[in-house]
Every structure is written in C-alpha cells, then in structure tokens.
Amino acid sequence: MKHLLICREFPPARGGGIGTYAWNASRLFADHGETVHVVTQSCEGAENSREETCNGKLIVHRVPFDDWTAFLGPKPHPGLLTKTELKLFRSSFYPQCFSWSAAILIEKLIQQEGIDFIEAQEYEAPLYYFQLRRAVGLGPTRQPPCIVHLHSPTQLIARHNEWQLDSSSLIAAARLEEFSIHTADKLLCPSQYLARQSEQHFRLAANSVEVIHYPHFECDGMDRADEVWSKGTICYVGRLERRKGILEWIKTAVSVAEENPTVCFEFIGENVLGNGQKSGRAIVADMIPKRLRRRFRFHGACSRAAIPGHLARARIAVVPSRWENFPYTCIEAMRSGTPVLATATGGMAEMIENNQTGWLAETTNQLTEAFSRALNCSPTRLKEMGSNAQASIRDLCNPDSIFEQQMDFRKRMIARGADRSLRLPKDLDWLDPALFKQTSSHGDSESICDITQVMTASDDSRIRSLDHNRNSPLRVAMDNPIRTGTIALNKLRGKVQRYVENIK
Q1: Nearest partner of 450 among 472, 465, 435, judged by Cα
Q2: C-beta of residue 257 within 8 angstroms of C-beta of residue 292
Q3: Which of 130, 199, 267, 281 fits as disulfide partner to 103, beta carbons 3.0 to 4.6 Å?
Q4: For residue 52, what are the β-bridge partners?
Q5: Distance CA 377, CA 383 (A)
Q6: Angle of the 168-182 helix axis to the 96-113 helix axis, nearest 10
Q7: Where in the chain is the domain with CATH 3.40.50.2000?
Q8: What is the largest CA-CA distance in the chain?
Q9: Are 19 and 7 in contact, with CB atoms under 8 Å apart?
Q10: Superfamily of domain covering 2-215+401-421
C-alpha cells in the first residue's frame, strides 16, 4: 500500500503534537514495510525537495513556504514564484499558500506514485485546495480516499485561548477546516473526547469519527535517583498558552508553594501568553511573588532531545489543560515512568487511571485538590504509580497494535473508495455550491485561483469592489458569510451572485 501524509509541521520543521504524530506515523508504516510519502514545507536544515529514508520506504517531499530567516512576521520563501502562491501567502490566512502548493504536488504524486490513501490533519486545512479541486471535477482521474485526522480545530483552540473570534484570519482558518472536515471521506481521531466533541461541533453523525490512539516509540522508563521521588520537581512541558491551563496551573502552584517550602516547579516550553498589552514574561512575573520565584524555573523552548533530562528530575508531570486532544506530552511523561497530574478535559482521561497512574481534576478549577492528593503520596507510592503509568501507556499506544488498527482502517477505506470528497458539501451554512457550477468546464487550470478565491468578507466594500474588477475570479467562495455590519448573509450572497451573472 502507498500512503500519502500531508503535514506542514513534519520534523525538523517547527511544530507540536501534529508534527510528532506525523513523524511517528510515517516511521510506523515505513518500519512495517509500507511505502509512505510525506508532503511538508522546506525548513532550516531540510531544504531538499525530496529525501528518502528507511530503505526508500519513507519519501519526504518539501515545498517552499515561509522564509525562516525572517525576524518580523511571516515572509514568503524565495522559492514562492507564482502569483497564486504569493497572493495566498499575503492573504488574511497565509497557511493556505502551503495548502495550494501541496495540492499541486499531491495531484502529481497520485498519478506518478500510485497513491492509495491520503491523510492530513484538519488544523490549517492543508488538504483544502486539493479537496476543492477534486470536488469541482479537477485533478487526476485516480481518486484515493481522503482522510482528515482531527487534532486541533482552530475554533476550539481560539475559544480556550480567549482569542478574538471575529478576526479575519481565524474566520478563514475555521471555514477552510470546516470545508476539509465535511469533504473528507472519513474522519480519524486519537481520542474519544475530541471525536464526540467534533461530531457535535461540526454537526456530524453520531459515532462517525473513527478513534485510533497515537503510536509511541520511545524507550521505557529512565534511571532516577531515589531522592527524585521525594525531592524531585513538578514538571510542565508544553507551550505556555491559555488553553494549556498554564494560568490556572501557576495560580495553583503559587498557592501550594506558599504552604510547602520544598516544592519546586519547572516549565519547559515557549511562552506565548503575550496579549499585545503585556508580554508573556510580564504576565508570569505578575503571578509569582518575588519571594517564591527562585522555586519556579522557566527554561523556554528546548529541543526534543532535552525533554527526557527534565523529566528525569521530576517526581510528577502536569498536563493541566482547559482543553486537549490526546497530548504527546502526557504520553511521553507516562512512558518515562512519571505519574501525571492532569485535567479530565481531554484525552488525558483516556490515558490516566485516577490515583493509580496519576491524578485527574475534573476541570482546571479543581487542580489544587488533585495536586494535594499527589503531594500526599509517599516517595514509594509515587515510584509505584510511575511504573504503573509506564506499563499502562505502553499497552495503550503500542506501535504494533496501532499499526494493525491503522491498516485495518485503511484497507476498509480503500475498499469503499472515495465518496464525500468527490462533491461539494451541502451542509455548510456559509457555502453556496451554486457558485461553483460549471467550474470543471474551465479545464484543469494551473491555478484554481483563476476560478476560486477564498476571501474574508469583513465588510461590504470588499464585495462592492468586485463590481469594478473584471479580473477578479469567476467564482468567489466566501469564508465569512456572517452578518457584516448591517448587511445580512443573503444580501452578501446576492451581491456575489449578481456579480457572477454580470460577467458570464
């Protein structure tokens, strides 16, 4: 079987759990003799357009995207040469440039390599342009099924990060992701928690999302000195952002530190708490009294290779998120033999057995009570729980078992063939499929932007400007068909439709 995986964060590109999954999944299949193609971005230290590893079973294709030498904001990679690529990069949602470049490459790989199965995550919708082209009749005649792996929907991230929900970039991301989800032939997810939440949020059929946990390869356990179980740190690994529960965790840690003079806390991860008014560093500093700061160590972003060293000093790891999927930080901590304190608002509850392999707080508001239970455990009990955690996660994320589940799933999907990806979705309130009629009659153009432009209709002047621009795309897909100002959705659609009729 020939698999194709699309992931902009594929290592060594910067990223988090999505890139970690892509790396582990591609290795998993290649190690079992499957051929895996990966489409990702060029990045520092990985600039070749094609590389083969794992005895030729893992082939990585890289497309230019952003310039990693830029200091101030995203900058187009010098390899982005076409007007389409540059236009998409400079749009309100620049990651769609990668989606377009990936789509062109995907179509070539399907024909040249005989791809049987396509997978990408929903975050940033890297499959969007490929799915759109297929849905309107463009692209190769070979049509392998498209699977979207639910990881971190932007709307859910934004809600729990307290972002501005009406920003043009967020609306664009959410609409593209929703299109990708509703045009997927099947949805896959590593946790029951997000699977059920997504079915409700995206109006999907009950139990329509397939659940297969992430595979994990790291070695079991690590050597810890006995004193670690009595004096070791309390370790947080991950970006310092609101949805990760970092504000609630620091508040809990400070209250406990006031009462317990021996507890020390470590934080490993980039601080992204800044909100435009205060820097992330200032926000953290304001939360921790000066008399306690020496017991709070912030290491910032670090390499993956450095994380085991931090965990080796920890007696307890924490995953205090407001919302999560199936975090690798929890998997890796448990696999290292560290019991984990976590909230139940995510897939952590599917990994941790309360008071046996860790401690669960129902929400971030109950972290203090759960942390008190953890600190009341003796060093011997902590060590025993760490051993239990290691054995439990080894079974849950066993790569051989995950491979069998994945292969069974993929064989079923290939036998069924592409279905939903062959047509535009009818259940998106903001998308009018009539706008795409006769698109395929234009032929397989080099740029779908000659046919469709994804735009944010943030005000009616953007729509009015179409009347004076005969070079605008023939079909316009609006990714923000909400009431804008005093203009209702139907009026916006009417203006677009009249424009389309006038230029026919």
Answers
A1: 472
A2: yes
A3: 130
A4: 59
A5: 10
A6: 30
A7: 2-215+401-421, 228-395
A8: 78
A9: yes
A10: Glycogen Phosphorylase B; (3.40.50.2000)
Q: In the 8-state DSSP scheme, what is residue 484?
A: B
User: How many Å apart are CA 6 and CA 120, to the nearest integer?
Assistant: 5
pLDDT at residue 203 in the model: 94
Phi, psi of 315 (to 5 degrees): -95, -20
Q: What is the pTM of this model?
A: 0.86
Query: Which CATH architecture is the domain 228-395 placed in?
Result: 3-Layer(aba) Sandwich (3.40)
Q: Label residues 434-458 b or e (16+ Cβ within 10 Å = b).
A: ebbeebeeeeeeebbbebbbbbbbb
The position carrying tokens 């070539």 is: 108
Contact 63, 97 (CB under 8 A): no
Task: Enter the tokens of residue 353.
Answer: 């057995």
Those residues of the chain that have pLDDT short of 70 are: 218-221, 433-504
- Judge contact between 151 and 21, C-beta under 8 A: yes
Q: Cα–Cα distance between 292 and 472 in angstroms, integer?
A: 60
DSSP readout, 242-256? Answer: GGGTHHHHHHHHHHH
Residue that has been written with the tokens 């709070």 in this structure: 296
pLDDT digits (tens, 9 = 90+) for 233-255: 999 999 999 999 999 999 999 99
Measured CA to CA, the distance from residue 433 to residue 439 in angstroms comes to: 11
Bridge-partner residues for 453, per DSSP? 476
CB 103 within 8 A of CB 466: no
**H or E segment and range at residue 372:** helix 367-375
Nearest of 208, 202, 38, 134 to residue 424 by alpha carbon = 134
Are the CB atoms for 285 and 322 separated by under 8 Å? no
Q: Let me know: does 273 contact 280? Beta carbons within 8 Å.
A: yes
| Cβ(436)–Cβ(132) below 8 Å | no
| Integer Cα distance of 292 and 317 in angstroms | 20
Where helices occur in 322-452 by DSSP H, the ranges are 328-335, 348-351, 367-375, 379-396, 399-416
User: HSE (CB half, 13 Å, CA atoms) of 92?
Assistant: 20
Query: Residue 247's pLDDT is what?
Result: 97
Per DSSP, the three-state class of 449 is helix
Q: pLDDT, tens digit, for every residue of 55-93?
A: 999 999 999 999 988 888 899 999 998 999 999 999 999
Query: Residue 71 has what pLDDT?
Result: 81
Q: Where are the beta strands (DSSP E) in 386-458?
A: 452-455
Secondary structure of 129-183 as H, E, C letters = HHHHHHHCCCCCCCCCCEEEECCCCHHHHHHHHCCCCCCHHHHHHHHHHHHHHHC
- Judged by DSSP in three states, 3 sits in strand
Strand partners, 60: 38, 51
